Amino acid sequence: MMDNQPQLGNLDEDGYTQLDFSSRNITRPVLSKKGFYAISLRWRVIIAVTLGVLCVVILVTAAVLSTMASSSCPPSWITHENSCYLLSTPLTSWNKSRNHCLKLGSHLLKIDSSGELKFIEEQVSSQPYHSFWIGLSRHQDNGPWLWEDGSEVSPNLFQVTSTETQEKIAHNCVWIHESIFYDQLCNVSSLSICEKRLSK
Ligand code: CA
Questions:
Q1: Is 82 strand, coil or helix?
Q2: Domain limits of the chain?
Q3: DSSP state of 64
Q4: Interval between CA 64 and ligand 1 midpoint (Å)
Q5: What's domain 78-197's architecture?
Q6: Which pTM does this prediction carry?
Q7: How many angstroms does the Cα of residue 110 sit away from the middle of ligand 1?
Q8: pLDDT per residue over 34-65, tens digit each?
Q9: Phi-psi region of 178 (alpha: psi -120 to 50; beta: other; left: phi over 0)
Q10: How confident is the model over 96-146, as pLDDT tens digits?
């Protein structure tokens, strides 16, 4: 009757009864040394695999988020085909407008195609009281009009209308007003159009 109950031992100093397991055939859950290392190794593998999978998930998520972020234009920029355009720029000279675009990771507008020209004409025509600097200038009077990357304007894309007067002051920068491109004094203040490529 008493076999399954621990033997009541002597009372300790505080009066509590001490249980004596030593004289009974009661086994305690002690793992063998081999078993301990086997379980430990298994857990190590599980933890390593879990961490590995977690790292892959984090990397894939970061890559997806990065792609999503770069495949859309920043706020206030207008998306058209593979570019972003900013028309809300400070009123300032051609040079300062150019620097402003550079600070934003962009460049003054370069018109590469008739489709891009049509889009820009639509945008600036909605603001008939403003002119906009574009990335077209020349180093000297009667020199070729060059984009910021050094290339010339595609033939038959558009013409630059001269505004030079008898004063012979060089008008070596170009702005667009409604649908017409004018040469202009580079230090006149104007809005401008910044452009940057839309990353895919
Ligand atoms: Ca362009």
A1: coil
A2: 37-70, 78-197
A3: H
A4: 27
A5: Roll (3.10)
A6: 0.65
A7: 4
A8: 555 566 888 888 888 889 888 788 887 776 66
A9: left
A10: 999 999 999 999 999 999 999 999 999 999 999 999 999 999 998 888 999
